[in-house]
Design a protein that fits this description.
single chain, about 240 residues, alpha/beta, Rossmann fold, three-stranded antiparallel sheet, 7 helices, about 30% helix, binds 2-amino-2-deoxy-6-O-phosphono-alpha-D-glucopyranose
Length: about 240
Amino acid sequence: MKIIVANTEKEFGELAFAEIKKVLDKNPACTLGLATGSTPIPLYDEMAKDHQQNGTSYKQVHSFNLDEYVGLPKEHPESYISFMTRNLFSRIDIDMRNVNIPNGLASDIPTECARYSDLLAHAQVDIQVLGIGGNGHIAFNEPNTPFDSTTHQVFLTQKTISDNARFFNGIDEVPKSALTMGIGEIFKAKKLLMLASGKNKADAVYRMIRGEITPSCPASILQNHPDVVVILDKDAAALLV
Ligand code: GLP
């Protein structure tokens, strides 16, 4: 596990982008695993800036997002498809036909989970961007999710609901359920790029890197992956020194 601590938010975005750019340079038709949340925004800003200034193209790129809320209309500003379109897809030249996000509005949720798992089983994600929840979750795999899980529906913990309430007009508006890529599927990516910033992540980051490998901290499984880059800001790295 390679751990890098960024000095500024700009550097945080640049360091994360450098990892994505290496993969893109090697294979312009690569498959990116993408994440939502406030943490990857500096990365998406760098991708958009580089596309605009240097013309890096995403025309041949395929992407898989980690998760989506259940029941939130696609046009709701906090649906993950809206988030991704606003923060990244509309700012680069990716072909929307190559974009994959679980459909949280599917009438048959188990079939939708099986569809997404099947797509992932036939793909190879080259680099998967990840954030971490304050309780150590990755994507929406909450504590005690089996390490070999595939795409499934989750009911969010109270901690995740209250953490995500800041994006909504109050806690009651936060969806209670989501679809998430499973930990087993996340682990299959060739490279994992874990991003964490802010004091509220310091404890989870410590447990991910130094703690026991246990389903009670889903992110701790990263210790077993052969190619992980962790980019932290100083606050998120605070307990590691
Ligand atoms: C959400 C997402 C995760 C994300 C986490 C952290 O619950 N499903 O994929 O990593 O929150 O979000 P933030 O980056 O906003 O702290």
